[in-house]
Amino acid sequence: MISHKIAETETFQKKIKTAKYRNIYKKITDFVYPILRKNPFFGTNIKKLKGEFKDIYRYRIGDYRLFYKISEEKVIVFIVDIAPRKDAY
Hints:
Order of helices and strands: EHHEEEE
Distance between the termini: 33 Å
Largest sheet: 5 strands, mixed
Shape: globular
Strand content: 25-35%
């Protein structure tokens, strides 16, 4: 089984350092990243977006949404953004 690498965008890294997201980052690195490394395409909390965002997936973490893109050639999951559920779309 191929293991995907995780890459965080600068936007995501800046956002995650704010107080609002500090607590959830540990959950993301300990729980979500291992799941995305194994299979970033399918899972109970994974959904592919539609329309203009058709290349982006979202992972639900409680009241937050983690958005990411998958690069097949490089076997990398690019973590693009995180947002509270009510503001996510």
